[in-house]
Structure formats: structure tokens, C-alpha cells
Amino acid sequence: MGNAGAPISTASSTQRKRQHYTNKPKKPINTAPTRPPRALLCLTLKNPIRRACISIVEWKPFEIIILMTIFANCVALAVYIPFPEDDSNATNSNLVSHT
User: What is the DSSP string of 22-34?
Assistant: First the structure.
């Protein structure tokens, strides 16, 4: 009976899939974040304080500084060993005296 034992052609199905994906209209990628026109009910997008805060937050080293601060905080919490009745050791005394 006909093509019962013939292999299925995957080239034509692959080509149809490729045409299906290439013919779709592409959406424009909006890389600029949308910001509300006002923040805190008074700061517009042209406000110098708001513009400075936005530029600091979008500054790439700012993210690294935040992550390093979190890491240092975790290390400080791991080093600190609380003792009952305000007793302490040398490490805890050094941590307390530097703060």
C-alpha cells in the first residue's frame, strides 16, 4: 500500500517551521524603562534630584557596590558570636569597638 514503509521527510517540515517563524512581524524592543511622570507626588522626570538618583541607580558599578555591601554584612554577621550576659571574646570586642 503506497508509502507505508517510506521515511518521513523532515526537511520540508523544518522548512515550513522556519518560514512560519521568519514571517512573523517582530515586535520593536523597547529597552528604555518606562517611568511614571511623577514620583513621591512631587518629583517630575525633569527634577534634578530624581535625575541624579536615576543615574546613580543605573550606574553599573552601583550594583557591584550593593552586592559587596551585602556580602560584607553577611561576613560580619557570621563572625559575630553573641554570648549571654554581655560576655564577649576578642573578635566581638574588635567588632563592637569599630562600630
Answer: HSSPPPPP--SPP
pTM of the model: 0.47
- Rounded to whole angstroms, how far apart are CA atoms 76 and 99? 11
Going from the C-alpha of 58 to that of each of 35, 36, 61, 62, the distances in angstroms are: 13, 16, 9, 7
Over the chain (99 residues), what is each successive 10-residue block's mean pLDDT?
58 69 65 84 93 94 96 90 69 72
- Dist CA 89 CA 55 (whole Å): 44
Burial tier of 1 (Cβ tally within 10 Å: 0-12, 13-18, 19+): exposed
Q: Which amino acid is at 44?
A: T
DSSP 8-state symbol, 46: T
